[in-house]
């Protein structure tokens, strides 16, 4: 028999008993929908977990601290390694070593100014901010480390700096009083007279950071005044005090020109989100002035507070982090947290998949029952086929095709119903039926929290699995059909 003849015979036999075929297909549909929707809910949990981690920071980022553990941040983060060498310093040699690791796309060295910093801007130092974070970085590695500019450009000469997106909203207007002396950033909260607060879309800031120079006020013993209106007036400076090493330190005021705004990366509490970022050379110069020493003296034993290593892919993070730890450094990343959440999600998916698997088992029993009944009813037909010289393998293939066709039809329809069910679940989670929500429910996104996620491979796997269940369930009846002697089959009344 030609394969086309087998398919034609298969179709005829399926439509011969329409009611039985429909009920059997219905069992496959229920089983397919159950397992796809159950797994999709597990995928939705996994997607929400990843969104939660991304909101806390990039999953590709590994933060490296000094091996001695004396640098900030040691010991509190997930995935923290143990110090193995007191000589594992965060210097330029360490930066180069990290860049040579396979799978690393960017290495960003960071140095935070440890002294109190206030800042003024505008005519007559009208706008002021206190306790501003100032960080020195290798600005050439910003883009490779996952940071982009919202506007402007990178610093190209001394005195040029970058600011975070929220930096301008830290400034207060000395000549305004009450709540009117500060502007609310996008995503912030504003409260009315009744104490009811709501999320703000953002107000227009007092000035444009890229067209306004700013002055940083700091010093080794500088103390910010209690009244912000006194910033820059010299009312509280700690000037001409002993720096602790026989040197005189004083309050210094350095003017800088913001040339770029760093796009927020989800963390608005560091200098890259709400502070000032300058080149490492400018940082050394500022530290030298703050301590009344020379740049050469600062550079002599200069080390970084931390180094941010960015892996090209999430899958590269474990290997990169392992190599960095082997060099004697402490590391912090979301890899350990991600693995724990992934294990929990896999457990949930197995439990949910097991529930769907029971429905598939019932569907397989239904297919087997249908095929057994089909063999019993077509015993005479099988005998005639053998008598006419039909190969045994063709008879087997005919019955297997029927069983596989039932699985295929049930799998395809089950996937379509699962897609509609997943869409409905997500629309309920998004609390509204609209074209915009439909697109969000299907496509997703960083700001979309979906309860059910069906990737393309789940559809493909469900259809293949449905066909496999059908073929396996029909294998026994098919073998029974080919074992029937031709003469006995012809004598059968059925």
TrEMBL record:
How is this protein annotated for GO cellular component? plasma membrane
The MacB-like periplasmic core domain sits at 21-170
Q: Provide the primary localization.
A: membrane
User: Which species expresses this protein natively?
Assistant: Bifidobacterium moukalabense DSM 27321
**Entry's Gene Ontology molecular function annotations:** transmembrane transporter activity
Domain ABC3 transporter permease C-terminal: start-end pairs: 355-485
Name of the protein: Multidrug ABC transporter substrate-binding protein
**InterPro entries per record:** ABC3_permease_C, MacB_PCD, Macrolide_Exporter_MacB
Where do the segments described as Disordered lie?
228-258
Which PROSITE patterns does the UniProt record give? PROKAR_LIPOPROTEIN (PS51257)
Question: Where exactly are the transmembrane stretches of this chain?
Answer: 21-42, 350-376, 397-425, 454-475
| Keyword terms, alphabetized | Cell membrane, Membrane, Transmembrane, Transmembrane helix
């Amino acid at each position: 028999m030609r394969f086309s003849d087998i398919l034609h015979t298969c179709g005829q036999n399926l439509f011969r008993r329409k009611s039985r075929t429909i009920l059997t297909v219905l069992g496959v549909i229920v089983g397919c929908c159950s397992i796809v929707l159950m797994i999709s809910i597990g995928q939705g949990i996994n997607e929400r977990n990843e969104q939660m981690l991304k909101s806390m920071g990039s999953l590709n980022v590994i933060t490296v601290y000094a091996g001695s553990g004396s640098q900030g941040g040691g010991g509190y983060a997930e995935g923290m390694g143990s110090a193995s060498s007191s000589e594992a310093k965060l210097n330029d040699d360490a930066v180069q070593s990290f860049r040579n690791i396979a799978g690393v796309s960017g290495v960003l060295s960071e140095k935070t100014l440890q002294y109190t910093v206030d800042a003024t801007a505008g005519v007559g130092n009208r706008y002021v901010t206190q306790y501003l974070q100032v960080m020195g970085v290798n600005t050439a590695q910003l883009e490779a480390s996952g940071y982009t500019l919202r506007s402007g450009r990178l610093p190209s000469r001394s005195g040029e700096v970058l600011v975070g997106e929220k930096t301008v909203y830290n400034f207060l207007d000395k000549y305004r009083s009450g709540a009117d002396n500060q502007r609310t950033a996008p995503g912030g909260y504003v409260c009315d007279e009744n104490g009811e607060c709501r999320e703000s879309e953002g107000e227009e800031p007092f000035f444009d950071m890229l067209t306004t120079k700013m002055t940083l006020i700091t010093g080794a013993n500088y103390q910010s005044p209690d009244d912000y209106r006194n910033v820059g007036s010299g009312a509280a400076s700690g000037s001409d005090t002993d720096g602790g090493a026989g040197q005189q330190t004083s309050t210094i005021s350095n003017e800088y020109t913001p040339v770029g705004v760093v796009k927020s990366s989800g963390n608005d509490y560091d200098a890259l989100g709400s502070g000032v970022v300058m080149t490492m050379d400018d940082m050394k110069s500022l530290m030298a002035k703050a301590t009344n020493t020379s740049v050469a003296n600062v550079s002599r034993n200069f080390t970084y507070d931390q180094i941010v290593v960015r892996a090209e892919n999430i899958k590269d993070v474990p290997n990169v982090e392992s190599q960095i730890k082997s060099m004697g450094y402490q590391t912090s990343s979301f890899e350990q947290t991600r693995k724990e959440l992934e294990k929990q999600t896999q457990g949930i998916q197995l439990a949910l998949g097991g529930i769907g698997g029971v429905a598939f088992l019932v569907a397989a029993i239904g297919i087997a029952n249908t095929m057994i009944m089909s063999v019993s009813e077509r015993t005479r037909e099988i005998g005639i086929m053998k008598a006419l010289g039909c190969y045994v393998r063709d008879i087997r293939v005919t019955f297997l095709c029927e069983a596989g066709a039932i699985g295929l039809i049930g799998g395809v329809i089950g996937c379509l119903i699962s897609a509609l069910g997943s869409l409905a679940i997500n629309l309920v989670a998004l609390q509204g039926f609209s074209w915009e929500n439909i697109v969000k429910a299907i496509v997703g996104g960083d700001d979309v929290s979906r309860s059910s996620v069906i990737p393309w491979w789940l559809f493909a796997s469900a259809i293949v699995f449905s066909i496999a269940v059908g073929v396996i369930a029909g294998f026994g009846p098919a073998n029974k059909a080919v074992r029937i002697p031709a003469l006995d089959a012809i004598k059968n009344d059925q």
